[in-house]
Hints:
Chain A is an alpha+beta fold and 437 residues long. Chain A has helices at residues 29-37, 54-57, 331-364, 371-400, 403-436; strands at residues 7-10, 16-20, 23-28, 58-63, 68-73, 79-84, 89-94, 99-105, 113-114, 127-132, 149-155, 162-169, 178-181, 195-196, 201-202, 213-217, 220-228, 231-233, 236-240, 244-251, 260-264, 269-273, 278-284, 289-294, 307-313. Chain A contains five helices and 25 strands. Chain A starts with 6 loop residues before the first strand and ends with a helix. With 774 residues, chain B is of the alpha+beta class. In chain B, the strands form eleven sheets. In chain B, strands 9, 10, 11, 12, 13, 17 and 18 form a seven-stranded mixed sheet that branches. In chain B, strands 37, 38, 39, 41 and 44 form a five-stranded mixed sheet that branches. In chain B, strands 40-46-45-42-43 form a five-stranded mixed sheet, with no helix packed on it. The model of chain B is unreliable at 6-20 (pLDDT under 50).
Amino acid sequence: MTTFANSVKTDPTGKYFITAADKAYVFDFAKVKNAMDGKKYESEKVLGIPVLNPDAVKHGNIDLGRKVMDIAFDYRTNVVYASVFEDKKIVRWNYETLNIENELKLSFKPGHLMTPQGNSAEPHSNYLTVTNKEALYDNQINIGPTRPSYQHLIDISSDKMRDIYTMSIPQANLYGSVSVLRTTIKPIIRYPLGTNTRTGEISRFMTVAGQERIERQGNRVHIFGTLIRSHITPEIVEVEEGDVVTFHLTNLERAEDETHGFTVSTYGIHGSFEPGKTASLTFVANRSGVFPYYCTEFCSALHLEMEGILLVRPKGYVPRAEDLVEVQLTKEDLDRYKKNYEDKIKVINETQDVINSVVVYLKENNYQKYPYVEALVVDAFDQLELAKTSKANYERYAAEGKWRDAFLWAEQYWQYQVKTADVGLRAKKLLSEQINM
Amino acid sequence: MLMILVGSCGKKDKSSEGGKLGAPYGEESFGDVVKRRGLNADDVLAAAKTFTPDNLMDEYIALNSGGQAGNMIMYSVPSMRMLKYVPTSTKQPVNGFGFSKESLEMLKTGFIDGQKIEWADTHHPGFSETNGDYNGKWAVVNDKANPRVFIVSLKDWELKQIVNNPIFRSNHGGCFFTPNSEYFVEAAQYPAPLDRKYYPLTENNFKKYWRGGITYWKFNDEIGRVDEKNSFTVEFPPYTQDLSDMGKLVSDGWSFTNSFCTEMYFGGIESGRPPFEAGCSSRDVDYLHIVNWKKAEQMINEGKYMIVNGHKVISIDAAVENNILFLIPEPKSPHGVDVSPDGKYIIVAGKLDSHAWVYSFDKIMKAINEKNYEGTDEFGIPVIALETALHGSVEVGLGPLHNQYDKEPGVVYTSIYVDSRITKWDYINLKVLDYVSSHYNVGHLVSAHGDVVNPHGKYLISLNKLSIDRFNPVGPLHPQNHQLIDIEGGKMQIIYDMPLPMGEPHYTALIRHDYFKSEETYPVGMNIYTMEKSPYFTALGTERNEVKGNKVHVYATINNGVLTPGNIAVKQGQDVEIHVTNHGQTNLDHYVYEVVSYDQMYRWRPGETATLAFKAEKAGMYPLLLDNYHSPEGSALQGYLTVKYDEAANNETLLAYSKRVQADMQMQAFQPSTMEMKGLLDGEMEFMNYGCNACHRFGEDFNGPDLLMVDKRRNDEWLKSWIMNPQKHMSEPDIESMRQRYKLAMPNQNVSEKDVNKIITYMKLKTAQYMSQQ
Lengths: 437, 774
């Protein structure tokens, strides 16, 4: 065979395999089998491995041009495509009759090829992608030394091949591609709550709402926390300098695309928490001070408020008396909060009217018929469900005359309403677009 | 690469004509295609507006922050094709960033207080300006998580400087240049004590010690570097500062920074306190901070500052005394604050208010000149009454977030987060002009040159936070969706949906392709991070090895796709530095050189000199590969790194490994609660706490041998001796062969006699449990 081949591929029937260099060699597997069964080897072995005579096992060979880089099959019987690097062309040829059917001249030197489902027994015959790693185009914008690689999309559905799209792919050193029909794969949209996404098992660090806690043992601190629009629980964590700290966090969201991120300022850690995921981040709190932590994915209108504070107390710290003074609320403060509370209740009622009107629209238009819309509505109601605790809190504090707490919990209730409205409006919009489609 | 086909063609599609081959789409007429794909006139028009065949050039480059990807992402407009990920502080093998000694040194300049930080949360890129327009020289971006800024040259779109903020703990309002790039700003986000000390968290201390601020980084536009000595910060109250913008033309010399959580609230759900999100949005308005930075600069020159952590800071009191700092109420929980192209108006969008508010710079100046204030905040900063400063407000929708200007005077676009749309409105006559839906929950938006004195109009991009149903499902983590909107005509039209994976771009800046001039090659011998000739430059024909003590310097070249010298021989334990100079001078001369299984590689650009530095810890033969990046052929063998065995060095390596495992063990050790203890087998905790699980599993080969049925293969006595004293067994032939196989030696974890028995018990129980489950 040729001295150097870039590619070897078995045809969809399994009867032939083809190596490609300047010449393409088509080998017949039946002949290979025959030669092996009959032990018809060349006289000289290579490192003890028997060598077959290429002429005895090949079906034939064909000249395709200078430097054939890769080959790919489609559904057409006995048809194969070859990229010819130096001659800048794609050759479609028949490996049974060893005839060239036709060629597509290219403006670039082609590299690797891919046809959809191309490595399977039933490749598709609609598209061919061709890699251009030189990435030289007359009219490309000069963006400095590093530039992307490209893939061209070739329409191979008819006798004449056509180059129909040029796509840049940065941050990749392209060698090979594979492609799968979208209906073959069934990706999930959320993980079962508490999944360690590397093992696929439920993490023993899974934390559900209400079970958030901080466990300490010597200098080892474990924080079992949760993430949900728009707060991280716990929100304040205090440790001592030198403690080894782990945040075990669980994203409680069920909604699609509701990923949260997490980082602690200047401690070099970061995690991405897709809905349902549990993961742990460990660091040594070797610097004392005040370190904000926050969510790094824009997750809701109050994303920026999804924050917390890690306090790292210096070893042997003794507070000064002046640093322990607490603010006391005055009568005026309380009156102000009472008024704030009453105003907020009005806003809550108005917002509820908006939510109700959206609910009416959704129901009237049979939102359940549209899976995406239905998923959003489920999420919207989840948000309202979460609001119940806030409501119980503000009613209790109002009854006790603790107006500041009553006001803030009313505010929290309203935040949940905003989130409900946010998702509800998105559902309404999606629904109206689906209806008008 | 894995691709997912969006069309369902091919022979299995029975509905398509043409039998097994699928329909011969290639023969279709234009009308056939439109009909088959169900396209309407708008779709066809959108395709025609965005499709960019090889003979046409895109008009704009979009530079995006990569968010938690720790980089900047470039794509071209209108074809919306991805061009480049510019690394800022995340290692990037394809670019080589973080893998050469030179780039690692650059990365290390961004470590804070000695803390290794190899990522960033990049937020808002900005371009340098001359006379209020982009000058095409530099781009800067901030890191919100680790308050730093990164400077990138538009000559090669590579990182040139990292500047750490010495007093903040997080930032947000950056990076925005002054009209002649005298400074760019970085405003704080979450307040923290500026001296970076610890104080107990009480409401009293929060007001007393916690602070925000805005840093003015002195910028040298000629060389593209920050002059840290002549930079300064104006201290702000502990409100949570947010985005900023610089005045221009009439308002040049002033900067504007908005804020939220002016309640100065901190949460504490775990102790019964309502969360941050409740307390931080309980006031009806927040504060827009206005600073006269030219006067602040004068104060610095006059010595009216204090030094905090070696950095110049103008205190709130000094700022008030010198009349440089003012506040104005602004709509609740705002995000964008954007100065109009003529500099006369400032628009603020508050996410929890359905209005965008337009402030008049003239009115603000008049109030300041007449000292017409409604009072002061708790820190004594004068507050200008809203009605004094406001030009007017417009109801733009639920959750307005950010504003970008049109070339048409008086026209602005505002992103509406909750309503998922863009509102086009007139900020002079205060009326809404048009809406377009975005999909979904738009954050920032960008129009062509929409933040400078002469916006181009043309295109608007909506940076959507959720993409739910827009693209083929690929698992829980979705791409972002950038929607290109045509704003040339009267009605806004979405003309492209682009999925953007890896990272979450927060903010984008668009620059027309003829505003900058990049170069594709460097003069031979360049260290591209310092932009100076490398001391390790090696001329062709002078390739050599130099041994200095325990250090081996290899001076190597790449010429015509060949690396010289091909073979390298060192002794185990030596420090090796391979300095490679790429003599290639065409834009195809990009090479990746690699020491196989030594975690050493880098990508050499044309003309670049860079160094692979490592300790030859492992003995053996390691292939040296060179890959011509722009050729489809794979890596080619250049020779071998031969590391000669040295017993002392080998022992040192094993010891270092054992120490790493022990440190890792300390990091991972976990004492489960009583509840979780119930589920543990006897000895399981010891197994984990000694770090055995770092290498061993049951029923699976991992970093070390599978432990399933290990009790059947070895007797207790041997296991005990092996765990407690592995060195004793190292010369046993089967141990040596396993060491070769796993490339690791069993470390001595100093397991006590009591615990070793527990671990052996656990291995037996685990095996029994595993077998019973099969």
